[in-house]
Structures are given as C-alpha cells and as structure tokens.
Amino acid sequence: MSDDGVINRQSRKACHAARDAYFACMNSNLSGPSEPASTARSACAEFKAAFDKACPASWVLHFEKRWQNQRLQQALERKGYQQIKLDVDANPT
After folding, report:
1. How far apart are CA 15 and CA 52, in angstroms?
2. Quick one: which of 63, 43, 40 has its CA closest to 51?
3. pTM here?
4. In the chain, is it the N or the C terminus that has fewer CB atoms within a 10 Å radius of its CB?
C-alpha cells in the first residue's frame, strides 16, 4: 500500500503478490484441508507480515475468509458432499 493509504495499480499488484506468496506457504505447510491452519501459521509468519503490510486490513480479512471457505469446500468434496445450486429468484406458487 502506498504511504498515503491509496490503493493504486502498483500497490494492488504488490498486495496480490504478497497474498499469493502467503497462501502458497500456507497450502504447502498443510497436509490436507482438514488440518488446522494454526499449524502452518508459524511457518508462514514472515509471509503473513508482508501480506498484512502490503494489503489493507479489509482485504486481508476478505482473502483469509475466502481461503478458509475454499479449504472447507475442498474438505467437504473429499468426503463426498456435493454443492447444490439454489434458484433464489423462483416464484413459489
């Protein structure tokens, strides 16, 4: 992020690069989606610090929640659960 807190193209690219490096580290330090993420956090502390520094806090929170949801979905798919599509626009009559 730039010194004045403005997100420009360069700072956005730096944020995405830091995010990708952090989650690559997290994924490589976890043996599976059901393993607690806390086991990998200590191994990836320097990547997390760079991620926190490069990205706005709201983005960090968003990316972390998205990564956790993806891990949950992978764990459920491995157990045989399937995603269903809901038609929320349907008119029940």
Report:
1. 9
2. 63
3. 0.75
4. C
Query: Tens of pLDDT along 27-75?
Result: 998 876 666 777 788 889 999 999 999 999 999 999 999 999 988 888 8
CB 26 within 8 A of CB 67: yes
Task: Give the integer Cα–Cα distance in Å for 62 and 55.
Answer: 11
DSSP the chain: --TTS---HHHHHHHHHHHHHHHHHHHHT-SSTTS-THHHHTTTHHHHHHHHHHS-HHHHHHHHHHHHHHHHHHHHHHTT-------TT----
